[in-house]
Amino acid sequence: MQKTTLGNSGVQVSRLALGCMLMGTQTSEEDSVEMLHRYVDGAGGSFLDTADCYAWWTSPTARGGESEELLGRWFARTGRRDEIFLATKGSAQPVDVPGLWADAPSRGGEPDWERARREFAGASRSALTDALEGSLRRLGTDYIDLYYVHVDDLDTPLEETLETLTGFVASGKVRHLGWSNVRTWRLESIRQLCQRYGWPAPVAVQQQHSYLRRKAGSESVSIVGSEQLDYLRRHDLSLVAYSPILKGVYDVPAKRAAHHVMTEYAGPDADARFAAVEKLAADLGATPNQVVLAWLLRQDLVTLIGPRTLDQFDAAVPALALTLTDAQVAFLDAAGA
Ligand SMILES: NC(=O)c1ccc[n+]([C@@H]2O[C@H](COP(=O)([O-])OP(=O)(O)OC[C@H]3O[C@@H](n4cnc5c(N)ncnc54)[C@H](OP(=O)(O)O)[C@@H]3O)[C@@H](O)[C@H]2O)c1
User: Fold this and answer.
1) What angle do CA 330, 336, 337 make, to 5 degrees?
2) SS3 of 52, please?
């Protein structure tokens, strides 16, 4: 597995990270364990990603923490904790998960996402401290390699969050820091405060990033845009690109019409990019998802996949061996409307 350096940390991490979001809920224990084995022993990867809230939304009985618990059982059974670069996150766990499922039938069986986005744990000292202790307990470990603030909390003074995170690093419970779903101006505030007070600064930013470009006027906090990409490069912050295949829309045209992930992308630019990736995939005898992953793997970032099934995992791995030529990359880059 090829590696890349995480920000200015000097630490080498796998370029293809495995998202464990659905492990223990939508992905069975047996398949999750097999996927971990195929990723670590088959593909040679060592970068796992989870969060304390994974995956409360997958069913009315899920509560969040199932993914970390599964990884904790795997570490305990295999003794492989120290082989893994383990990332988890805090702040996004909703305050009242059962309450979010009340009246779900009136929302087509969906939890109350709007309330979940309003009423979440946040990044205060007490919320983050509880979140980290819960993660360590579920994972059965005494350290996290990379700890992210999962969703930015604009209501807590940034100084309080950063002082809390500084304490995590000083205690040895956390080795490196990251932020996710965050605006560029906040990253600059964080950078300046860390510089002023000598606090450890984030080395990674986890944002949604794929081959499609977000629509003009999109105000998504989660999707990295060209200006934020430029900021990350300038300040030596690694981008960890989540939803790299946008839930599989490249391979499954039917999903493009129906999936909520397309809300921020659908339009002529996306159509032109779908056409380009389909053409190159046909020329190469690869799938469109694989071409998108290969395009991301050529860049200086970490590509964070989230297969739900073993077949989906197996379909992603060949992208590691699919080396695009400069001309092919230029062809993909040039596509658009
Ligand atoms: N920081 C954040 O806020 C945040 C947000 C989201 C994710 N993440 C992290 O990033 C990881 C990856 O994100 P993601 O799960 O959104 O990434 P993704 O790889 O873009 O999407 C995964 C989904 O794509 C579909 N899929 C995978 N392979 C496919 C194939 N060969 N053909 C068709 N469909 C396929 C599956 O959908 P179906 O289930 O419909 O089959 C699967 O659930 C997560 O595990 C998590 O660790 C972080």
Assistant:
1) 150
2) coil
Task: Name the residue with tokens 């992930």.
Answer: 261
Q: Atom 20 (ligand 1): residue with closest C-alpha?
A: 243
Quick check: CB of 246 below 6 Å from ligand 1? Answer: yes
**Helix or strand or coil: residue 79?**
coil
| pTM tops 0.90, yes or no | yes
Of 21, 47, 291, which is best to mutate to test ligand 1, by the most ligand atoms within 8 angstroms of its C-beta?
Answer: 21
Ligand 1 within 6 A of CB of 72: no
Contact (CB, 8 A) for 47 and 13: yes
CA distances from 102 to 60, 89, 117, 230 (A): 9, 26, 16, 43
User: Each residue's pLDDT tens digit in the chain (337 positions)?
Assistant: 999 999 999 999 999 999 999 999 999 999 999 999 999 999 999 999 999 999 999 999 999 999 999 999 999 999 999 999 999 999 999 999 999 999 999 999 999 999 999 999 999 999 999 999 999 999 999 999 999 999 999 999 999 999 999 999 999 999 999 999 999 999 999 999 999 999 999 999 999 999 999 999 899 999 999 999 999 999 999 999 999 999 999 999 999 988 899 999 999 999 999 999 999 999 999 999 999 999 999 999 999 999 999 999 999 999 999 999 999 999 999 999 9
**263: amino acid identity, one letter:** T
Encoded amino acid at 272, one letter: A
Q: Could you tell which of 242, 278, 313, 314 is best to mutate to test the pocket of ligand 1, judged by most ligand atoms within 8 Å of the CB?
A: 242
Ligand 1 atom nearest 244 alpha carbon? 20
Amino acid residing at 154 = L
Give the pairing of strands 85-90 and 47-49.
Answer: parallel
